[in-house]
Design a protein that fits this description.
The chain is mostly beta strands. It contains 6 helices and 21 strands.
Length: about 425
């Protein structure tokens, strides 16, 4: 990743990126390493009343042929304040929208997701993931025989979540991608499947405060991150628990699988109160299979757990994600104890929480003779109970268990349709 043979300054409008390459030309079958970095540091400033900023920048990898990313490295500018980073795909059809959001190279605030699709809810999968980093994760190397599609003419959105409780220094992070031409590579496309769970963690016994009620916490989330962030909590509760609020120190949600895929790896994601994570295929049945079990989760050591062999999932299966939390840590951790106690819900800040299973999946097994087109989007195989609804609205990728390579937005309307159809009944 660090080998630099040549460097040049490339300009996309007023957005610049430093590109360094290693290896052969992208026109050959050999790998090329490209490092993308903004030429000047960005100094994050949290919105009033908050300690977090999600900032997006637009990068141009200058790919002129369909490529497959085989590994990626996020080089954090200031580790004390970089909570996570995600690289999102901007397909050619969305370049104009992304350029407008970028505001002449200034970047934009992007809580939740990049907001690439007009009218979409900025949570989770509003654009396909290319790569992700969190503390302890290190470089991401895709499993042998797989890669992440980067179509010709695409741009990249680099989202960095800055947590400013400990630091607010100028940041000049960069992203390194190793890739090879898709044609003739024999690589199958690795996609990202996001399966969240609703959480309702009350203040510990004996702890009181203005934010210790669910309603007050929701109002605070709305103030810090926008009304859609609070709405997402309520909709996720409807999907996972049928709208019944069940306070406790665990979060769980069962998601239906919509099409045949293969799970290669699972990455748990929680914040500082998270203590354990488990993902189970077909929980509660004779076919139950534990996909990953992390009994001692550590926010500072977030790694991907690779399956010994890819696990086949298909329509009719379910995946259950479960997280547990220790709310007393909020009064003990130096990072959190100076903050007021609160009822913990899903929210974007480092001092908030999440319960998310990040699954690396393919639509086929990797063999030397298998090549998936870079622009392929899997067809959604909906059960009859939801087919009529699905035919009228956007692809419901997060909910169906299909891959994240589609370009349709995942909106609250999608989730609401699932709930109204009774498909997500607890």
């Amino acid at each position: 990743m660090k080998r630099v043979i040549a460097a040049s300054l490339l300009v996309l409008g007023s957005v610049s990126a430093v590109i360094s390459t290693a290896g052969a030309s992208a026109r050959s079958h050999a790998s090329t390493t490209v490092t993308l970095a903004l030429p000047k540091p960005f100094t994050p400033v949290a919105p009033a009343g908050g300690h977090d900023l999600y900032h997006c920048e637009l990068l141009n990898p200058h790919v002129t042929t369909d490529m497959m990313i085989t590994s990626s490295t996020f080089n954090a500018g200031v580790l004390a304040q970089d909570h996570h980073a995600i690289a999102y795909l901007v397909p050619p059809s969305q370049v104009a929208r992304a350029t407008a959001l970028d505001g002449g190279g200034k970047g934009w605030t992007c809580f939740g997701g990049p907001g690439l699709l007009a009218g979409s809810v900025d949570n989770l999968g509003s654009a396909p993931w290319l790569a992700a980093w969190s503390p302890g994760h290190g470089p991401t190397v895709e499993p042998a025989g797989t890669g992440v599609s980067l179509p010709a003419g695409s741009l990249i959105i680099l989202q960095i979540h800055f947590n400013l409780l400990a630091s607010h220094k100028p940041d000049k992070s960069s992203l390194s991608l190793t890739m090879r031409p898709a044609a003739g590579s024999g690589l199958v496309a690795m996609n990202t499947l996001l399966l969240p769970a609703a959480l309702d963690v009350p203040c510990p016994p004996g702890i009181t405060g203005k934010l210790c009620s669910r309603s007050a916490s929701l109002a605070d989330i709305s103030k810090r991150f926008g009304a859609s962030a609070a709405n997402f909590d309520n909709i996720l509760e409807a999907v996972c628990h049928g709208g019944t609020i069940v306070p406790g120190t665990s979060a769980t949600c069962t998601w239906p699988v919509g099409s045949t895929q293969y799970i290669w790896q699972v990455t748990p994601h929680m914040h500082l109160l998270g203590t354990s994570f488990k993902a189970v295929l077909n929980a509660g049945t004779s076919r139950a299979q534990t996909l990953v079990d992390v009994p001692s989760y550590d926010f500072h050591y977030q790694i991907s757990h690779v399956e010994p062999t890819p696990i086949r999932i298909q329509s009719g299966d379910t995946i259950t994600t479960t997280c547990t939390f220790d709310p007393t840590l909020r009064q003990k951790l130096p990072y959190l104890k100076a903050l007021p106690p609160r009822y913990i819900l899903w929210a974007d800040g480092s001092s908030d929480e999440m319960c998310l299973g990040i699954f690396g999946v393919t639509n086929a097994l990797a063999t030397p003779s298998t090549v998936l087109p870079a622009h392929q989007v899997s067809q959604v195989m909906w059960p009859a109970s939801i087919a009529a609804v699905a035919s009228r609205i956007s692809i419901m990728g997060v909910l169906s268990g299909t891959d994240a390579s589609g370009t349709a937005p995942r909106t609250l309307a999608d989730i609401e349709a699932m709930v109204k159809a009774g498909f997500c009944a607890p």
